[in-house]
Amino acid sequence: MVRSRLVPLAAAVLSACGAEPEVQEQGPDRADTVALAMATFDPAAFDSIAWETSDDAVDRGRLVYRISCSKCHGNAGEGDGGFVMNGDTLRPPSFVQPDWRFAEDGSGLRRQIFVGNVAGMPYWGLVGLKYRDIDAVARYVREGLRASP
Ligand code: HEC
After folding, report:
1. 114 Cβ neighbours under 8 A, 6+ residues apart
2. Could you report the per-residue pLDDT of 51-73, keeping only the tens digit for each?
3. Where are the beta strands (DSSP E) in the chain?
4. Of 23, 69, 84, 120, whose CB count within 10 A is highest?
5. Averaged pLDDT, 96-117
């Protein structure tokens, strides 16, 4: 009994470790999915998200970033992750440039993360990030990455 429950668990853990984020297709299907993400996005869902401390949010965001974003955006947010350098995806703008478009726009940033875009940014709200983790990673980008020298 115990054995038969353990085997599928081990398989799930292994496949989770080996999983690479997929580089998504461009084209009409992708545009439909981005449109669906836009229609699904509910900015009011962030209103009920509370964090014990600001550090908790940023720490959670650091983890989400490492798993879901750094392959393309780079560890420091400069747009130089491995996927970009391998030529698998277009180079994203640096998050740490002084005049970055989302520097003062937390709600726009959360929306962009949820919705993605047709040029290659994944629509995270449809493929695996809950509102809470989108909030966390947005805070990490603005209060962690941008705040560090
Ligand atoms: C598969 C590669 C890939 C992954 C993984 C990825 N992104 Fe992106 N992202 C991109 C690309 C490519 C762009 C630029 C698209 C463009 O030029 O419009 C982008 C754009 C963005 C932008 C808009 C930047 C700007 O200045 O316009 C934000 C914000 C962003 N990504 C956040 C994130 C976050 C947060 C994560 C993790 C949850 C993430 N991305 C994961 C590829 C990726």
Report:
1. 37, 41, 123, 124, 125, 129, 131, 134
2. 999 999 999 999 999 999 999 99
3. none
4. 69
5. 96
Burial label for 141, CB within 10 Å (0-12, 13-18, 19+), is: buried
CA distances from residue 111 to 4, 67, 84, 138 in whole angstroms, order as listed: 42, 19, 23, 10
Do 34 and 116 contact (CB within 8 A), yes or no? Answer: yes
Residue 51 CB: number of other CB atoms within 10 A?
16
Q: Whose CA is nearest to atom 42 of ligand 1?
A: 121
For each of the domains in the chain, give its residue range(s) and CATH number, in order of start.
Answer: 24-145 (1.10.760.10)
Using an 8 Å Cβ cutoff, are 107 and 115 in contact? Answer: no
> Model's pTM, two decimal places?
0.84
The identity of residue 137, as a single letter, is V
Please state the atom number of ligand 1 nearest to the C-alpha of residue 95: 26
